[in-house]
Design brief:
Elements (H helix, E strand, L loop, with lengths): L20 H20 L3 E2 L5 E3 L19 E3 L5 E4 L4 H10 L8 E10 L11 E10 L4 H18 L6 E7 H10 L5 H12 L1 H13 L2 E3 L5 E3 L5 H11 L6 H12 L3 H19 L7 E3 L13 E7 L3 E2 L5 E2 L3 E7 L5 H4 L5 E7 H10 L12 E3 L7 H13 L4 E3 L6 H10 L4 E4 L2 H6 L1 E6 H8 L5 H7 L3 E5 L3 H11 L7
Parallel strand pairs: 1-5, 7-10, 16-17, 16-18
Antiparallel strand pairs: 2-4, 3-4, 5-6, 6-15, 7-11, 8-9, 11-14, 12-13, 14-15, 18-19, 19-20
Helix pairs in contact: 1-3, 1-11, 3-9, 4-9, 5-6, 6-7, 8-9
The chain binds one RNA strand of 77 nucleotides through helix 13, helix 15 and helix 16.
RNA sequence: GCCGGCUUAGCUCAGUUGGUUAGAGCGCUAGAUUGUGGAUCUAGAGGUCCUCGGUUCGAGACCGAGAGCUGGUACCA
């Protein structure tokens, strides 16, 4: 026996979570539904390894001082730095560059799997989480963006988000660049600060953003964020731009043209959005599902054209019943320079990704808790230790008939076994003791029936005497009788 | 990174100006009930009061440092 001092504490690293059957079933269902949609749009599945060489992941290169900044990195035995992927886009860029000669172009693929980020976990934010991503590499057409957007909309709905509960908001980086020019922003640093400020519009509101555009803002925790230092007039201009989105897409475009039209880059962005609008209309996606919104910024450098963000519209509440802001459940955009890092050749690409467990949480908040029906197996009770083979035979028969079942493998008596079956949310228990063996029968107990009756029973003697939902049938009718009980069990709710 | 809050049983938490043997509810185990789930009753197990140092006759409580957790904020590919 290990001494107390050397015994490890049973706990996982922070930011990593254990997920049980309930959550896994929900996520699996989402992925199956989304994959089906994505494949219907002509995207092929791709899986790449968890590790990439660090230089392939882009600007978050480990260096000698801080090799793990942002990513989980380690040195291979040949001393090359490799790191766990932090998203699915960077591995795609690497894959596309590596296989460019032989790929059908444009290359359309989707992927899902865990990604890892070595940063401080927050509420709903983990250091390992499952992402689902779809991209088109090698097409600069706005229709490629429109298709990704339409597919995102269809995917979210297929996963179970009711129509109208989420909207994809679309913007274009080129408009933002045009706006910067109009607002007199010249330095790259200042531009970044302005973009970050705009990105916080949904959380801080126009007043908070106005502060960030000007001198700066002090938050409730007393932390001060330095502002962009714009003049009041310039700040108002930026705010006016972000407020220009509302209603139908072409109307929004007209208003935006009034603010950023005229600059070469702004006009280019407007033309792209106009083409996206037409394509979306052709695909049957209206403004209630995909709208232009100039306040969408997404990330910082990386994106080069259209950017989009899927936002949950439902009023949601947290565990304590407090209303909460759910925010974005996914996002993406056009990144024309990512593959060029490998090939030196500019390769247009666009994509969308979402967090799978985040979507699962959104579905739960939307009242579509797909995880509810994780019922346990039929439990075969062991009353005679010497007849294990007979019990195994029973479970085998049930399994062969497609009914999930198991023999109780503990050593406790009958009552704990019943308790076990109850706790597993088993639909039924199979009871075969000396009486049944002698008579060639089996006793079956419909546990759901007992669960339903339990609330009305106050006296234990009566409860036990009643034997709710219990029946004895000939051994030969075992499978048929169990099937009747199991198929009448409520899938979602055991109570 | 910056700012706050918290840390006592498996869980949720009490614990009086610093004073005997540190408590409750839930959960767990056993019994009432030897072949029956819920409820009830009874009994039991379960503690480095986060760690180290200091003050004191005496610290779960006060002081200092550290760790962990948590909320916000910054960053976010």
């Amino acid at each position: 026996m290990t001494s107390d001092a050397s015994r490890p504490e049973a706990r996982g690293p922070r930011g990593f979570i254990d997920r049980r059957a309930r959550d896994l079933a929900a996520e699996r269902r989402i992925l199956a539904a989304v994959a089906e949609v994505y494949e219907r749009y002509g995207f092929e599945a791709l899986d790449t390894g968890a590790f990439e060489y660090a230089d392939a992941l882009g600007k978050f290169l480990p260096d000698a001082d801080r090799p793990n900044e942002g990513v989980f990195a380690l040195q291979d035995d040949d001393e090359q730095w490799m790191a766990l992927r932090y998203d699915l886009t960077a591995p795609l860029a690497r894959f596309a560059a590596q296989n460019w000669e032989t790929l059908p172009k444009p290359f359309r693929r989707y992927a899902f799997g865990p990604v890892w980020r070595n940063e401080k976990p927050g509420p709903g934010r983990f250091r390992e989480f499952v992402q689902c991503d779809a991209d088109t590499v090698g097409s600069a057409r706005p229709e490629a963006d429109a298709e990704i957007i339409a597919m995102a909309v269809a995917g979210l709905e297929a996963a179970g988000l009711p129509a109208g509960s989420a909207i994809v908001k679309i913007n274009n980086r080129k408009l933002l660049n045009g706006l910067m020019t109009a607002a007199g922003v010249t330095s790259e640093v200042q531009k970044l600060v302005v973009l970050r400020a705009v990105d916080k519009l949904d959380r801080l509101g126009p007043d908070g953003v106005r502060l960030l555009l000007g001198e700066g803002r002090k938050d409730e925790s007393g932390d001060f964020t330095k502002g962009a230092g714009l003049t009041a007039a310039a700040a108002e201009r930026v705010l006016a731009f972000t407020a220009a989105g509302a209603g139908d897409r072409s109307g929004t475009l007209d208003r935006l043209a009034g603010v950023v039209g005229g600059s070469a880059e702004g006009d280019e962005g407007l033309a792209e959005l106009s083409a996206i609008d037409a394509a979306l209309t052709g695909l049957g996606v209206g403004a209630e599902r995909a709208a232009f919104d100039p306040s969408v910024v997404r990330g910082l450098e990386y994106y080069t054209g259209a950017v989009f963000e899927a936002e949950l519209l439902l009023q949601t509440t947290d565990d304590k019943g407090q209303p909460m802001r759910f925010g974005a459940i996914g996002g993406g955009g056009r990144y024309d320079d990512l593959v060029a890092r490998f090939t030196g050749e500019r390769t247009p690409a666009t994509g969308f990704s979402f967090g799978v467990s985040r979507l699962a949480a959104a579905l739960k908040a939307a009242g579509r808790d797909l995880a509810a029906d994780s019922r346990g197996p039929v439990v075969v009770l062991v009353l005679d230790q010497d007849r294990m083979a007979d019990y195994m035979a029973v479970a085998g028969e049930l399994r062969a008939a497609g009914i999930a079942s198991e023999v109780y493998l503990g050593t406790s008596g009958m009552r704990p076994q019943m308790k076990y079956a109850d706790r597993r949310l088993s639909p039924a228990a199979v009871i075969i003791g000396g009486d049944e063996f002698a008579a060639g029968t089996v006793t079956l107990k419909d546990l759901d029936l007992g669960r339903a009756l339990a609330s009305g029973v106050t006296d234990n003697a009566a409860w036990r005497a009643e034997r709710p939902g219990q029946m004895t049938v000939p051994r030969t009718e075992l499978v048929a009788a169990v099937r009747r009980i199991v198929s009448s069990a409520t899938p979602g709710d055991a109570a």
